[in-house]
Each structure stands twice: as structure tokens, then as C-alpha cells.
Amino acid sequence: MSTNSINGATDRESLTIPLLANSTSQVAIVGASVCPIESLDYEIAENDFFKQDWRTCGKIQIFQYLFMKWLLCFLIGIIVSLIGFFNNLAVENIAGIKFVVTSNMMLLNRYGMAFLVFSVSNLVLTLFASIVTAFVAPAAAGSGIPEVKAYLNGVDAPGILSLRTLVVKIIGSISAVSSSLLVGKAGPMVHTGACIASLLGQGGSKKYRLTGRWLRFFKNDRDRRDLVTCGSAAGIAAAFRAPVGGVLFALEEMASWWRSALLWRAFFTTAVVAIVLRALIDLCLSGKCGLFGTGGLIMFDVYSANITYHLIDVPPVLLLGVVGGILGSLYNFLLDKVLRIYNLINEKGIVYRIFLACSISIFTSSLLFGLPWLASCQPCPADASEACPTIGRSGNYKKFQCQPGHYNDLASLIFNTNDDAIRNLFSRDTDAEFQYSSILIFFITCFFLSIFSYGIVAPAGLFVPVIVTGASYGRFVGMVVSSKSSLNHGLYAVLGAASFLGGSMRMTVSLCVIILELTNNLLLLPLIMLVLLVSKTVADAFNGNIYDLIMKAKGFPYLETHAEPYMRQLTVTDVVTGPLQLFHGIEKVGDIVHVLQTTRHNGFPVIDEPPLSESPVLYGLILRAHLIELLKKKVFSSTPVPIGPDAFEQFLASDFAKRGSGNGGKIEDIEISEEEMEMFLDLHPFTNTSPYTVVETMSLAKARVLFREVGLRHLLVIPKVTSRSPVVGILTRHDFMPEHILGLHPFLVRSRWKRLRIRLPQLFKIF
User: Which family does it belong to (predicted)?
Assistant: First the structure.
């Protein structure tokens, strides 16, 4: 067995590594803390007990199994939509009260008291979010999308989808977004949906006694993975009221495995979300949602009129895409560097994490309150579509410090929630509303504040900040080229948001549909498609998408869809390391206990030797969790003989079901006497007799494709010559990581640089 395996023996000191982990270690940064990680196993262990269990299932049990999949998808849709609505309701009302009180102070010319109310309320909200995250559930910090994406790729970590993380994610996100930090709630909603799906899939939470036998139908990682995929789709659907966009987001960005049955269930889940949100928003239209108003849930349906554009409008749109790609790659680069700096601060302890969050809050409040003073007051337009100046929480014409009949255009963007700022930027028939300087200041402020705000110990998303930043940049470009273009400034803001999203997140189809569902106008489709394609192509020349960079910085061993070219030069034996731990079909209990106590491996080859077979043969693979369950039941015999069929009666199918995240059994908890140590245990009925195997001469690239596409945790390497040992070694996720491979074969690093030097001049010629 590979001692370097992600499931292998872990040096105790490695759990306290202060720097960012890399994908060759057994730890990663989950949320805001360093945690041990392990692989998920999407392969079904087809042992004799599993086959017997399925043979006993009748048509009713099979119908219940299929019915529960759809029922849980329905429940996920209901719960996620209710939470999404509650989040928006809470944010709009908490932030609304803060802005109303501050505005009232401004009307009375009590500017010092207004700043004190604004900054202290923001600080209290940030402090609450950071404290509850740091002390209760550090895994809830950040967006959550990188963690969920890694989970769907096959990487698990304790607490990532727990009930505690779910609760903190909800209340922490409400507090952080309400505190005027430039963070979003879309990412946390994806994490929230994944947590709900995971908890339902594993039958609730036994720790908090929130469970039921009727929920415990899904006994393996594969079924739970599908539910988490549906949950992530529901999260985006609830955040943006974009059901189709949510499905495409899960397909394009989140899921590493996809099939038509999963597509149907994900679509059903997001359809439930859309229907429930529509019903709840109708409730708000009657005025029963307080300051939530009637806009609700980020629906910017501001382009109901026909849109006409001509060939002369294409060059500015292409310019938007090119600049958006450059800005998006720069944004990713700076965010990656800031996260690394923040990690050096966060590793010093909880007090430093909370202090960092509070410092960012104070700096943000000072900036947001001070910058509008730099903008000159503008007279209210005579044909304004709403009251000018705006008195209260939201609106296009904020009075701030201006005299009656005038408004502060920069305050109209800054002194609002992110949703209202986007709505103001997207609004049509407002081409004369904003000054060049105000839009430029707002763009620079959003660009850097969103970078500095993301890494704090609080739930924080990137989607909405990127939309705000891109919309301001797009509006500025629209103002510059307005004399030579027939498109209004609001449309340029929409295209700018699309270009910046494409440049940062590198998605195309899902972002296109999400933006269309946000703006509620299909006529934007050609321009949005063009700007997304251009921005993604330009940005890909510089670095990866933002979530991949964050996953790499956090140390998640994520397997990309493509194999590195140098992997075709290697065979699987070039990366297999030893020593290999084997079990015989009938093994001594003491030997099993010794191996489990001295290693952290999660899978062991089982071989048969004479007299059970004519020659040494590979019988299969047995999992660590199954060995621990067998030791608990103590199905031992005094002599090395096979056990009878009646042994199955001592077990239930739930005994071998996958436990919740991080809740596996431990060998240290089992008490075995000296007499039992000398007894024997027959492993045959509980060994997976059909594990995936590759011959030792297979290229590493082909083995990696098989490993990722099937979703394996262990891949056995068998010899080409049968006269040798039946097993050469085991490949795990760690063995396919570039850092591990290049560490074993340093000459590949030099060859990569050589190829890069040859290709760079060719690349520059293309551009």
C-alpha cells in the first residue's frame, strides 16, 4: 500500500502545518481552519453480503428506493427556497433599518452621529458573523463553493457538510452581507443547499437527534453525491431565481460526474425552488415583507423594451470582453495572493482572525461613508421615474449631504445594498444619472474591497461582488463610447458584469443563462454569448478560474478533467510506492488489529494462497470501515476455516452503510482480548470481489482517466506476468497529483520548462 496515499499514514505533526497545505499532504484548509481530509469512494463494494442484501429486496423496496430519491429532491427544493427567501428577507430588513437610521441622521445634518451609527452597526454585524464562525463552525467561512466542488470531485473533510456548518452558514451569511462588506450570498447558498442535501442523504444528524429511519435509504457515497449536486443547483436557483441557470451551474462548474438521470432530478429540484420563491414573492407584493419591498431576490427585469443593436456596436462589446478577461485574471491573481497573506494571519489564532475581520469592517465603513463626499451634487432630473432625491433605504437618487432638489450619484451606488446597487447600474433611461468620476471611483472601490473582504472568517460569496464590479466597469465603458453606440448605459453594465464574471469564473453556458434569467430579456443572448466567450478566452491565457485557484491554495487534491501531457510518458508502476499491506482471505485477528493500528490506509488487497487456491491470486479489496465493523461484531473462529452462510444473520445492511462525514469507526474504540487476538476472521464474504484493476504497464494518463471518471478511491495495480505477486500496489488520489509525480521524477520539471519555452513565442505570435 502506498504510504503516501491520501488515505495513508499521517504524520501527527502534519496536522499543525501553519502554511497553506498542498495537494500532496493529508490536510487542507476547510473554511478557515486546517483539517485532515480523505477521499470518497463512489465505487459500490460488490461483496457477498451486498449481493445477498440486494437479492432479498423486493419490488416494494426498489420502488421505495427510487421514490425516496425524488422525495428528497423535493424536500431539498422546498427547504433551500425557504432558506433563500429568509436570507433575503433578513438582509434587506437588517440593512434597510441601518440605512434608514443613518439617512435620518444625515437629514438632520448630524453627520458624525450618522457615521457612528453606520460604522458601529457594521462592526457589530461583522463581529457577530466572525465570532460564530470562528468558534462554532470554521468550515462555514468563505464561499463554500470550493469545498463543495472538491467534495463532488471525491474529497471529504470533517464538518464540511454538517448541521453545525449549515446553521452558521445561514446566520453568518445574513450578518456578513448586512454589514456592508462587499460579499455575496450566492456562494453561501450553494454551500447551504449542499449541506441540506447531505444531511437528508445520510438520514439526518444522529449527533443532534434529528433523524428518522425513513430517511436512511442511501448507504453509499454515490447516492449522496447526486443529492449534493442537486443541492448545489438549488442554491444557485434560490440565490438568483435562476432555475435553469442553477442546473447548468452544477453541470458546468460543480459536478465531476453527470448523467441524464441526475439532470432530471436536478431540474426537478430547481423547478420546486422557482415555484416556491414565486409564491413567496407574491406574498411580498402585498407589502407583508417590511423593508424587503417588492423587488425581491435579485430579479433585475429592467429590459422589457425591445433592444436594437447594429454592427457598429460589436467593437465596443469585443473591447468589453477583452478588458473583462484581463481584469478577471488580475482579480483572480490578487485574490489568490491576499488569501495567502490572510492565512499567515489566521494561523496565529482565533483572536487574530476576528481582529482581521473587524479591521476590514472598520476600513470598509470609513471608505463607504467617506467616498460620497468626493462626488459633487447633481440637480434632480425633471423626468425622473422615481422620487428625487430618494429619502430612505433604496433608490437611484440618494440625497446624502446634498441640498434639497439634488442627489449624490456616488452615494446612490455605495449607500445601498449590493442588490440595489446592481439594479441602479442596470437601470435604463438613466444615461445622464452618473458622472464619470463616480463610476470610476465605485469600480475601483468594489474591485479591491471585494478582494479584501473575501478571506475573513465569515461566510462570504464572490458572485454578487463580481457582478457589481463588472457592472460598474461596463457602465463606465458605455459612458465613454456612448456617442458612437446605440446601446444604453444600462445594457453596457449588464455586458460588463458578464465579461467580468467570464474573466474571473471562466464559465460560459451557465453564466449566460443566469444573466438572462436575472435580466428577464432573451434579446441580450447574442451579445452576452459573445462577451463571455471573448473574456473567458483572454483570461484563460493568464491563469485558472477563481474557484480552482482557491482550491489549490487551500490544498484540496482536485483531479482536473484532463491529464498532464507528461503522464503519458509514465506507467502506473512509476508512481506506486510501498510497502504494500496485504490480507489473506482468512486472517489472524491480531494481524488485522496490528495493521489497522499502525496504518491509516482505507483499503487492503485480499489474496488467497494454497491451500485455498492453487497459486497466489487476488481475491478482492476490503475496506477499513468493513474490517472495523467485523471486529466489533467479533465473528471469529478458533481455526482458519471459512464461515457459513448463517454469519450474514449477525449483520444488517445498515452496519456496512457509509457513515456521515467524519463519523467513521475507530480501531482504538474496539476492545479485543488476548484470546481473541489468536483467533481467525474469514474476510471472503465481505471482500469486494470485483475491484477496478489496471495492468502495471498501463500509462499513468489512462489510469488517471479511469480513476476520475469512475470516481474511485483505490485502483489496484496487477502484474503483467502471473508468476509474480498477484498485486503490485494500489493507486490512490494522491498518486495522480502533479506535485507527487514531479517530486518522484524531477526530470519532468525540466522537460515541462523546455516545452514552455518553445511554445511561448508561438503563443505571442497568435496574440
Answer: Belongs to the chloride channel (TC 2.A.49) family.
Dump pLDDT digits (tens) for 163-190. 999 999 999 999 999 999 999 999 999 9
Which residue in 640, 650, 653, 716 sits closest to 681, CA to CA? 640
Q: Cis omega before residue 579 (within 30°)? A: yes
The tally of CA atoms less than 13 A away on the side-chain side of residue 478 is: 29
Cis geometry, peptide bond prior to residue 761 (ω within 30 degrees of 0): no
- 7 pLDDT tier (thresholds 50, 70, 90): very low
Would you state the cell numbers that stand for residue 176, as one nine-digit string?
456578513
Long-range contacts of 319-323 (CB under 8 A, 24+ apart): 319/477, 320/474, 320/477, 320/492, 320/495, 320/496, 320/499, 320/531, 320/535, 321/499, 321/502, 321/530, 321/531, 321/532, 321/533, 321/534, 321/535, 321/538, 322/534, 322/535, 322/538, 323/473, 323/477, 323/499
Q: What sections of 428-488 are H helices per DSSP?
A: 436-454, 463-480
- On the question of pLDDT at 298 being above 80, the answer is no
Supply 135's cell numbers. Answer: 468558534
C-alpha cell at 82: 425557504
Count of beta carbons in the 10 Å neighbourhood of residue 761: 8
Across 642-676, b (16+ Cβ under 10 Å) vs e yields: ebeeebbeebeeeebbbebbeeeeebeeeebeeee
**143-167 residue pLDDT tens:** 999 999 999 999 988 788 989 999 9
Q: For 523, which DSSP code?
A: G
Q: Give the three cell numbers for residue 634.
A: 467479533
Q: How far apart are CA 324 and CA 330, in angstroms?
A: 10
156: β partners = 38
Report helix angle 145-153 to 546-554, nearest 10.
80
- Cβ contact 67:707 at 8 Å: no
Q: Whose CA is closest to 641, among 679, 614, 605, 668?
A: 679
Tell me the C-alpha distance between 149 and 556, whole Å. Answer: 10
Tell me how crowded residue 526 is: count the other CB atoms within 10 A of its CB.
12
Alpha carbon 442 to its chain's center: 28
C-beta of residue 436 within 8 angstroms of C-beta of residue 476: yes
Output the CA angle 514-516-522, nearest 5 degrees: 155
Lookup: cell for 572 = 502506473
Q: What is the 3-state secondary structure (H, E, C) of 689-717?
A: CCCCEEECCCEHHHHHHHHHHHCCCCEEE
205's CB contacts (< 8 A; 6+ apart) are 162, 163, 199, 211, 660
Q: Which helix or strand (DSSP H or E) is residue 583 part of?
A: strand 583-584
Beta pairing class for 204-205 and 210-211: antiparallel
Confirm if 449 and 182 have CB atoms less than 8 A apart.
yes
Identify whether the C-beta of residue 335 lies closer than 8 Å to the C-beta of residue 543. Answer: no
For residues 216 and 657, the answer to whether their CB atoms sit within 8 Å is: yes
Helices (H), 7-58: 48-55
Taking the model in full, what pTM does it have? 0.89
Nearest alpha-carbon partner for 471 in 602, 300, 618: 300
Sequence letter at residue 601: H
Helices 111-136 and 59-107: angle between axes, nearest 10 degrees? 160
Per the document, the length of the chain is: 767
Cis upstream peptide for 616 (omega within 30°): no
CB neighbour class for 198 (10 Å; exposed up to 12, middle 13-18, buried from 19): buried
525-540 and 489-505 helices cross at what angle (nearest 10)?
40
**462 in helix, strand or coil?**
coil
